[in-house]
Amino acid sequence: MKTVITNAEVEGRHVSVVIEDGCIVEIDKDVVTLGADVVDGAGGALIAGLHDHHVHLLAMAARREGIDLDPLQTPQSFDEALRSASANSESGWLRASGYDEHRHGTLDCRRLNALVGNRALRVQHRSGLAWVLSSAGLDLVLNGELPDGVELDADGVPTGWLLRLDEWIARRIPPTTPSLREVGAELAAFGITGVTDATPNLGQGRLEILRSAVSDRSLPQRVVLLGVDDPQAVADFAKVGPAKIVIDEVTGLDPDALARIISAHHLKGRAVAIHAVSRAETVTAVTALALAGPHHGDRIEHGSVLPEDLDAILASGSVTVVIQPGLVGERGDHYLSSVDREDLPFLHRAASLQSAGIAVAIGSDAPVTSADPWVTIATATTRRTRSGNVIGESERVDARTALGWYLTDPLDLGGSPRRVMCGGAADLCLLDVPLDEVLAAPNAAHVRMTWVGGRLVYS
Ligand SMILES: [Zn+2]
Asked: Is the pTM above the cut of 0.85?
């Protein structure tokens, strides 16, 4: 099947683009449209489809199916949402996510019991690192066990908080099979044609859900996975990126031990993607990368507080930093009151990384922040928080630069942005106006159509 997109703006020129067998086969002023599906581009820009370099697909799907607390601004609205969810649903587990103590107030099992009675409820902290359970939920999950991570009060009674026990909990709660269809549709409407799922240790169960979503096309995007040991095991539906390593200052940081883990991956020919957020974590990660020596494709995930004295090592080791400018908008006001004063200049850096010669890519970390790349691009240009404060004015980048950070090949992050060119895969995003207009006021409403491998996935 042949598709021709006429009258499209490609890198400033008005051309027609011919797609055949999933690839772009011709870009010219005049092309033969006979027998083809013709789409009138109406002068809008045609760009390569965006790639979000850090998401958590199954968590995005799960969040849609549970109670989303993130939009709620007060303790009262939090209480209201949980009370009505409990009253309006059948028996069984209730699940909520996006709890934020700064907006929703302090939490323990007693507050939850008062809202949902003896229903089993689990509420996920917005960091994704902790859950708070109602007493009925605790009884079901603990079942007499008390692993490390179950917070106890002065009398040795569980408070409801379970810290860093995600996988442990998942083994004790009947699995749900979240649908990725809506996630795929939302991403396609943003012009996103590929994602890198950064979830560590994707087990067999989660891989099966992803495999079936990709093969029945409910998730139309190209998928790169980090939390997989054996690339062959997923070769039928996904590519495998660097190995995800999570380090955590709460459980202890050891640069030498980390360097040995990194080296073991490098020896097998695989780069690493190290989750490092705080100053102590980024210093440890970069120190360990230096000890292990450079390997093409190594990345730091987040680098939320990244002191400038690490720049030389990152630049010389060709390490990419996968940043989340969206967090400046969504959580910036909280940062201003909570982040150490000496860390503020190094918070969610962007422009200064680029000028230090460090490769940068963008990931939303959805569902931690919105997956909308156009909001993220806008925030990267303004560095404005929800209430209008500006964080790190000197870290602003122009919208074209930020868009470029969504366009790099997911397996070659330091490379140049993917382009609309002959011979390339037809992973495309058609906008309704010229690119300069979109970049002047980035907004997902400008996305008109999205193709993955020549197949229309959003219109
Ligand atoms: Zn993440």
From this structure: yes
